């Protein structure tokens, strides 16, 4: 009953989860169970790269929840992603202990270099994994709740809301660049050693992080799917399509928008937390407004309001970025901009929304041609 209500007749959701499972198992097996000189071997760097793509897919999914189903175009979700990453990075820094360059058992290397005498109060507790994981969700969630409460209560919508979300992430960018903030300044947090006592550089740990990213993506997708198909989700869609009419019907529109916005921020924070141990660094550059804008492009390319499209768009665009920045690095931004313009003008429903539409057109045209071929000819009049 639950599965039927969740998936219904949507084969795309089942295909997405099945493909995710197959890829996760194959990548793990081909990395750990095949020799390095085998043609089937998946190198460890590629495992980390694919894990990064999955983290981006979770971020895109969080944006699609608020943009595709509530109509909130957020240009600041990169801030929630970065805050979750910093929370994980703080935990990983506390695990280094005396193995750092300066050998201090408590203070991270950058604090010793800057002559800090004691650990700031907001670093306390990050030596505990459970506390750090709570902060991964709590810090982005609180920021989103406070920001959303003030914005939605004031009925800020449309482009004005997009602008102030971008201003928020830019303000955080400037703040985290400061050395006296206690987050590593421009260099950020890096040189991580262990996670839960396991060496981050081993093949097994890389595969485990990749699998954790795939599991998180599947769970976030199922959560979003359940929300969008529930009564709560129907109200969200009503808010997106006719906010004033929904409000006049007696719904507390601000509460629904705030709940969706806060949940999406928590999802973005989880994505950032999984991202950091796989790339090995977190710095203020993750707060850059262009990162949030690029994430919106992923959703648009894949298909806004489809969930699957957001994940597919994130993976496809970032794969293209990896290829183009290696071959033609100076042309990547032009290619990304051209892709966004192309999708906006010619594929407004994105990849996932356009491909089924094209297939339906081809089937209908084929059926029409078959009907014309099978149509009997009219009898000719007999000659006199």
Automatic annotation (TrEMBL):
<feature type="transmembrane region" description="Helical">
    <location>
        <begin position="159"/>
        <end position="177"/>
    </location>
</feature>
<dbReference type="InterPro" id="IPR001851">
    <property type="entry name" value="ABC_transp_permease"/>
</dbReference>
<dbReference type="InterPro" id="IPR043428">
    <property type="entry name" value="LivM-like"/>
</dbReference>
<feature type="transmembrane region" description="Helical">
    <location>
        <begin position="331"/>
        <end position="352"/>
    </location>
</feature>
<feature type="transmembrane region" description="Helical">
    <location>
        <begin position="296"/>
        <end position="319"/>
    </location>
</feature>
<feature type="transmembrane region" description="Helical">
    <location>
        <begin position="129"/>
        <end position="152"/>
    </location>
</feature>
<feature type="transmembrane region" description="Helical">
    <location>
        <begin position="255"/>
        <end position="276"/>
    </location>
</feature>
<dbReference type="Pfam" id="PF02653">
    <property type="entry name" value="BPD_transp_2"/>
</dbReference>
<protein>
    <submittedName>
        <fullName>Urea ABC transporter permease subunit UrtC</fullName>
    </submittedName>
</protein>
<dbReference type="GO" id="GO:0005886">
    <property type="term" value="C:plasma membrane"/>
</dbReference>
<keyword id="KW-0812">Transmembrane</keyword>
<keyword id="KW-0472">Membrane</keyword>
<feature type="transmembrane region" description="Helical">
    <location>
        <begin position="66"/>
        <end position="88"/>
    </location>
</feature>
<keyword id="KW-1133">Transmembrane helix</keyword>
<feature type="transmembrane region" description="Helical">
    <location>
        <begin position="12"/>
        <end position="33"/>
    </location>
</feature>
<dbReference type="InterPro" id="IPR017778">
    <property type="entry name" value="ABC_transptr_urea_perm_UrtC"/>
</dbReference>
<feature type="transmembrane region" description="Helical">
    <location>
        <begin position="39"/>
        <end position="59"/>
    </location>
</feature>
<keyword id="KW-1003">Cell membrane</keyword>
<dbReference type="GO" id="GO:0015658">
    <property type="term" value="F:branched-chain amino acid transmembrane transporter activity"/>
</dbReference>
<feature type="transmembrane region" description="Helical">
    <location>
        <begin position="207"/>
        <end position="227"/>
    </location>
</feature>
